Amino acid sequence: MNSVVPNNKSVARSQASFDLKTWGPFIALMALALLGVLINPAFLGLDNLSNMLTRSAFIGIIAIGATFVITAGGLDLSVGSMAAFIAGVMIILMNSLVEQFGPGLTTILLGIGASLLLGLCAGFINGMVTTKGKIEAFIVTLGTMGIYRSLVTYLADGGTLSLDWGVRDIYRPVYYGSLVGIPIPVLVFLLVAVVGYILLNHTRFGRYCFAIGSNEKVAEYSAIHVDRIKTMTYMLQGVCVALATIIYVPRLGSASGATGVLWELEAIAAVIIGGTVLKGGHGRIWGTVVGAIMLTMIGNILNLTDAISNYLNGTVQGIIIIVAVYLQRASWRKSAP
Amino acid sequence: MSTQDQPLLSARRICRSFGPNQVLFDIDLDLVPGEVHALLGENGAGKSTLVKILSGYLSATSGDIHLDGEARHYRGSGEAEADGVVMIHQELALAEQLSAEENIFLGRELRRGLFLDRKAMRERCREALAELETRVDPRARVKDLSTSDQQMVEIAKAITRDVRVLIMDEPTATLTEHEVEVLFALIARLRERGVAILYISHKLREIERIADRVTVLRDGRLIDSGPMAGRSKEALARLMVGREITDMYPERSALASDAEVVLEARNMVVPGAVKQASFTLRRGEVLGFGGVVGAGRTALIEALLGLRPRSAGEVLRNGQPVALRHLRDAVRQRIAYLTEDRKGKGLVLNMGLRPNLTLLNLRAYCRPLIDRRREEQAFHEAIERFDIRLRTEARTAAELSGGNQQKLLLAKVMTIDPEIVIINEPTRGIDVGTKHQIYHFVRELTEAGCSVILISSEMSELIGLSHRVAVMCAGVLTGVLEGEQINEHEIMQYASGIKGVGVDEQRRA
Ligand SMILES: Nc1ncnc2c1ncn2[C@@H]1O[C@H](COP(=O)(O)OP(=O)(O)OP(=O)(O)O)[C@@H](O)[C@H]1O
Ligand SMILES: [Mg+2]
């Protein structure tokens, strides 16, 4: 027997079954969109669509970071509180900078810079404690989740931190503005997704994430700096949270202890709906994007109909998450001999 | 042993395909009570697939299975086990987080009323482990056991059932010599009791000792089946591989007397594993490492490479001290390491073959994004060079047979174009044909001026390939044997600590 070049039939077959898995989330999204149109034709309106995408950008951007963390076998529960904390610090900083620089671009750029730096540091801490301290990511990030949440409450003194009105006017377009007809948050979302896709699928870093998530030992024996790569995934997650926060701040212009509550779960849900495996080793950026949009779409559709109460949003989301994962598992099972 | 016995389990015209690829063709097999039936074949011949079908883990694409003359259609291993058809897996299939005892009774826990009868289970478990002469604590978590102990738990799990047909898929690949003896004694007892045994192994010496009947598969087809008596090892090897295997061990390459030292380890100490070890490796040399399992050979080498912490010791590369803190540093020094645990540490099983191949030296395939075409090209070269045989288009490394996994792993470590190659148990679970190829590959390496460190528990391998053999015993490098000294007797003496340096101090300590 010599090495056989795989015959065309087998290649075609494996691709066909592979495609089904890749396209699963997209098909689900289409089905959901169809449902939306049937319920209310206004669903397809340009306004509604762009509104929905804009809203999904926060969770979407955070979820793209989470895709890396989860693919590499980690988990970050702190993203929601981290976002609140970053928003709080950013607002305090910009408010105080107003005195010095006035409510101008400098103030905002410094605020943005600080936000990114903070995200990077917060991620670094999560990463270092999990890898060097050899503590489960679940525990570490559960801890930092509580810490960031209480810090923002403390900074706001139990109340709400509000952004200076002058800054708010100038900062406003970052959320409400648009470029060539596309809302800026959507553009950022798209950009992050493209960069994330390339990073995960076409670079060494991404390949290492897959390897580490599949089997850390093998990664170590393949001369991969496992701790370093894992820490980097948390830092990337931090940057994504910072980016989402930068877009979020001009929307509300405030931060409080209630900001970003449960975002971590929504982000994780988006990642899982998209087909990334929760225990690591397999990640899909476009799936995550679709997952984030789906989650927002559910709320949107419920808004457009009276058939189901808006208060049942969580119920519908929950059911969809479970069904999505069930379908993925079922297709796994079928493709396995 | 009776002769007129009806087959207990018989399989007829078994076929199996994975997707469009057929891996078994019309296989017939009869298992008779009180008989040890050996199943032989190259890696990927379809042995594991066949026995998984017999024991209900896989279904046949077509064909029939009869037990006691009655047709059986197992839909899961549970149904087969209920019939007394039990299989010991090639890949350990234990629940890592559970204790040995919990694993042994997993899914058929003994109960008293509503509650688990822990006492009875512990009792039965102790009996089984005692019969296997292991010191495994029933309460120890499987995760914390050594591979050979895990294998013993797996065997205990099988024999605590009411077994009528016992199928063993390469049970000895990870066992120590003593454990192998214990297992053989157990097999003999089971045979007396009238159990039908199907035994898969690549070790022809074992087959010769215990088999009553043998069946040979090649490329999924039944090549030969009949009583063991009258069939020689050589004949079986030829049937398996389909060609004559001569010169199992190639002639050693001549070693220049002034060959420089390329690697030196001085006074290495690894907490809990190595007490004292120093050695040198010269250009073009094969340095064997002998000793029993657990003597500290792997710990020594892995500490040298920066894979485990060491508390003392110095490493010199080409005479210069080097700090190897991470395997990456070793790679930079052009040292390649082939781990003994290809499934747990060597290959990412759920990843494709190409990413596995390039994982160790991925930067060579980046500019700066990963160049899939270059990966593909490297993969095709590796298939050629290492004779990786893809009967089916495997999507993941898990689908490859053991021998092909080993070749892929070898190809992977060779992607760094090393000057020093350290191979740890390179032929574990590997068929004769592939072994032969690996030995010749080692020879090619030294020919080309590379140096090789060969850790092996197979005496004949060490003797056949090494220029010098370093022997370890209980964490101490007791001696380095050369020339005439390299023989089984001498190696055993050093390995058991009867001869060699450091032995007396150790005794006194
Ligand atoms: N799940 C699977 N999907 C696709 N192909 C498979 C799968 N399992 C096994 N194969 C293929 O079937 C063939 C037979 O494999 P099998 O594991 O039965 O070989 P084996 O004789 O047990 O080899 P070894 O001695 O290495 O254990 C191989 O070509 C293998 O690649
Ligand atoms: Mg097998």
Topology:
The complex is a heterodimer of chains A (337) and B (509).
Chain A: H1 8-39, H2 46-71, H3 79-101, H4 105-132, H5 137-155, E1 160-162, H6 165-171, H7 173-176, E2 178-179, E3 182-183, H8 184-202, H9 204-214, H10 216-220, H11 226-252, E4 254-256, H12 263-273, H13 285-304, H14 313-335
Antiparallel strand pairs in A: 1-4, 2-3
Chain B: E1 9-18, E2 21-31, E3 36-41, H1 47-54, E4 62-67, E5 70-72, H2 77-82, E6 85-88, H3 100-104, E7 111-112, E8 115-116, H4 118-131, H5 147-159, E9 165-169, H6 177-192, E10 196-200, H7 204-210, E11 213-218, E12 221-227, H8 233-241, E13 261-270, E14 274-282, E15 286-290, H9 297-304, E16 312-317, E17 320-322, H10 327-332, E18 335-338, H11 342-346, H12 353-358, H13 372-386, H14 402-414, E19 420-424, H15 432-447, E20 451-455, H16 459-465, E21 468-473, E22 476-482, H17 488-495, H18 503-508
Parallel strand pairs in B: 3-10, 3-11, 6-9, 9-10, 15-20, 15-21, 18-19, 19-20
Antiparallel strand pairs in B: 1-2, 1-4, 4-5, 7-8, 11-12, 13-14, 13-16, 16-17, 21-22
Helix pairs in contact in B: 13-14
Adenosine-5'-triphosphate is lined by residues 18, 23, 41, 43-49, 90, 391-392, 394, 399-403 of chain B.
Please characterize this protein's 3D structure:
The complex is a heterodimer of chains A (337) and B (509). Chain A is an all-alpha fold and 337 residues long. Chain A is built from 14 helices and four strands. In chain A, the strands form two sheets. Chain A has a two-stranded antiparallel sheet. Chain A has a two-stranded antiparallel ribbon with strand order 2-3. The radius of gyration of chain A is 21 Å and the shape is globular. The two termini of chain A are 24 Å apart. Chain B has three domains: 9-241, Rossmann fold (3-Layer(aba) Sandwich), CATH 3.40.50; 247-334 and 418-509, P-loop containing nucleotide triphosphate hydrolases (Rossmann fold, 3-Layer(aba) Sandwich); 345-414, no CATH class. Chain B has a six-stranded mixed beta sheet with strand order 6-9-10-3-11-12, sandwiched between helices. A six-stranded mixed beta sheet of chain B has the order 18-19-20-15-21-22, with helices on both faces. Chain B has a four-stranded antiparallel beta sheet with strand order 2-1-4-5, covered by helices on one side. The longest helix of chain B is centred in the middle third of the chain and has 16 residues, at 177-192. At the A-B interface, helix 1, helix 9 and helix 10 of A face helix 10 and helix 11 of B. The complex binds adenosine-5'-triphosphate and magnesium ion. Magnesium ion is lined by residues 47-48, 90, 169, 402 of chain B. Adenosine-5'-triphosphate is lined by residues 18, 23, 41, 43-49, 90, 391-392, 394, 399-403 of chain B. Chain A: The chain crosses the membrane at residues 23-44, 56-75, 104-125, 137-156, 176-200, 231-249, 285-302, 308-327. Chain A: GO terms for molecular function: transmembrane transporter activity. Chain A: This is Monosaccharide ABC transporter membrane protein, CUT2 family.
